């Protein structure tokens, strides 16, 4: 009986893979072919330094972009980056410029039609960026099985993904494999579509709803649970924006289900890492965020200004590539009473729907923690 269930499960997974390959390899030819606004980039303004690098990407690559957010984490120089579900390679080529010639970017995708576009323009972008040799490569494979694609354990500083995890029939395996190939202190920084409840099986079986990144969306609570079960520290919510679908036929099928596009940061911290709140001061040396570093929806760090951070964020900053970008102070810290006093920032939910409600009722800006480590940059 167990073998029968396994065979049925494998058949279902293979069917999802084939449907997604067909949808993104044959049905969709360009971004405007999408039938909903789920896979449309976030309305959040794109920073000037990111707009500059996107402008360098070949139009044929950009035309087949189906992301739902902006996956440009900070402090990228010299880093090794993996893009899960890279498609035609737009984000890979964008990051290729930001990691620099000493960094490297790998894109993995299961759809050969997409990879054919990505590979076609490797030489074009190498010359465009002024590099002596390519720092980008593309691998065909499944994001649930990175080992089978030849990706080694603890080999990447950062993993990104842009509106792809929802298309996977096995989200837990995606997170497990991402955790495996990340170095200690590494980060999974990804944008995806999330639902306000678990999606029923009849909707999951709809090929268009799945292909449009809707019926395969994780319930946001399941993301939090799965991430921590795999070993990541508690996810940090960066941004969220509402998805309106904007298709009467699809809206009727979906009923009362609501969706958001949200970006989360998940960190793989070394085992036994100390967690102790402290004061931190950002040195302002990261490209593109010299004056202010918006870490997530709760914390924004102003250059040369001390900010109180909680146990989790203190551990993340001191054990990741960000450690060399901050000064840490544990002595003389008070959060109440007389003397030097630092207000604890207002807690921000990891629930993207709740964050949007807060933003709708009042402006919720990341806290700067106003008054009442070893160097680990990728280039080393």
Q: How would you characterize the overall build of this protein?
A:
Residues 79-231 form the Methyltransferase domain. By secondary structure, the chain is an alpha/beta fold. It has two domains: 16-268, Rossmann fold (3-Layer(aba) Sandwich), CATH 3.40.50; 274-331, Ribosomal Protein L9, domain 1 (3-Layer(aba) Sandwich). Helices cover 32% and strands 20% of the residues. It has helices spanning 2-27, 48-54, 59-62, 90-99, 112-120, 122-128, 171-181, 201-204, 207-211, 220-230, 248-254, 311-319, 352-361, and strands at 80-84, 104-109, 136-140, 156-162, 182-195, 218-219, 236-243, 259-267, 278-282, 292-294, 300-302, 306-309, 326-329. The strands form three sheets. Strands 1, 2, 3, 4, 5, 6, 7 and 8 form an eight-stranded mixed β-sheet that branches. α7 (171-181) links the parallel β4 and β5. The protein is globular and about 60 Å long.
* Uncertain spans: 1-9, 361-375
Oligomeric state of this protein: single chain
User: What is the percentage of strand-forming residues?
Assistant: 15-25%
CATH architecture term of the largest domain: 3-Layer(aba) Sandwich
Structural class: alpha/beta
Order of helices and strands: HHHEHEHHEEHEHHEHEHEEEEEHEH
Q: At the third CATH level, what is the topology name of the largest domain?
A: Rossmann fold
- Kindly give the count of domains: 2
Mean of all residue-level pLDDT scores: 85
Q: How many strands in all?
A: 13
- By CATH reckoning, the class of the largest domain would read Alpha Beta
Q: Give the CA-based shape.
A: globular
Assign the CATH superfamily of the largest domain: Vaccinia Virus protein VP39
Helix content: 25-40%
Give the termini distance in whole angstroms.
Answer: 53 Å
Q: Number of DSSP helices? A: 13
Main sheet? 8 strands, mixed
Backbone CA Rg: 21 Å
């Amino acid at each position: 009986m167990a073998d029968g269930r396994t065979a049925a499960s494998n058949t279902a997974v293979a069917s999802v893979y084939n449907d997604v390959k067909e949808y993104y390899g044959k049905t969709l030819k360009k971004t405007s072919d999408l039938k909903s606004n789920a896979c449309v980039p976030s309305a959040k303004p794109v920073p000037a330094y990111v707009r500059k690098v996107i402008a360098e990407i070949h139009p044929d690559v950009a035309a087949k972009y189906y992301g739902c957010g902006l996956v440009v984490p900070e402090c990228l120089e010299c880093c090794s980056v993996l893009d899960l579900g890279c498609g035609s390679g737009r984000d890979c080529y964008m990051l290729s410029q930001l990691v620099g010639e000493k960094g490297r970017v790998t894109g993995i995708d299961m759809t050969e039609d997409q990879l054919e576009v990505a590979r076609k323009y490797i030489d074009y972008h190498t010359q465009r960026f002024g590099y002596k040799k390519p720092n980008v490569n593309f691998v065909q494979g499944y994001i649930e099985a990175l080992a089978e694609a030849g990706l080694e354990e603890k080999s990447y500083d950062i993993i990104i993904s842009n509106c792809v995890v929802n298309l996977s029939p096995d989200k837990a395996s995606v997170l497990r494999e991402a955790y495996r190939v990340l170095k200690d202190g590494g980060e999974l920084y990804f944008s995806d579509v999330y639902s306000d409840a678990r999606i029923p099986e009849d909707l999951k079986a709809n090929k268009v709803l799945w292909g449009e990144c809707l019926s395969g969306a994780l319930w946001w609570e399941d993301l939090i649970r799965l991430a921590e079960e795999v070993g990541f520290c508690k996810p940090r919510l960066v941004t969220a924006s509402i998805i309106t679908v904007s298709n009467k036929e699809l809206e009727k099928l979906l009923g009362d289900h609501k969706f958001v596009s949200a970006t989360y940061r998940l960190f793989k911290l070394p085992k036994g890492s100390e967690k102790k709140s402290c004061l931190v001061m950002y040195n302002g040396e990261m490209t593109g965020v010299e004056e202010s570093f918006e870490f997530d929806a709760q914390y924004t760090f102003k250059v040369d200004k001390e900010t109180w951070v909680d146990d989790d964020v203190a551990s993340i900053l001191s054990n990741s590539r960000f450690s060399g970008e901050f000064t840490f102070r544990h002595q003389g810290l008070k959060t109440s009473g007389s003397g030097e006093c630092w207000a604890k920032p207002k807690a921000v939910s990891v629930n993207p729907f709740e964050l949007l409600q807060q933003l709708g009722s009042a402006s919720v800006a990341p806290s700067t923690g106003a008054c009442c480590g070893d160097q680990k940059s990728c280039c080393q």
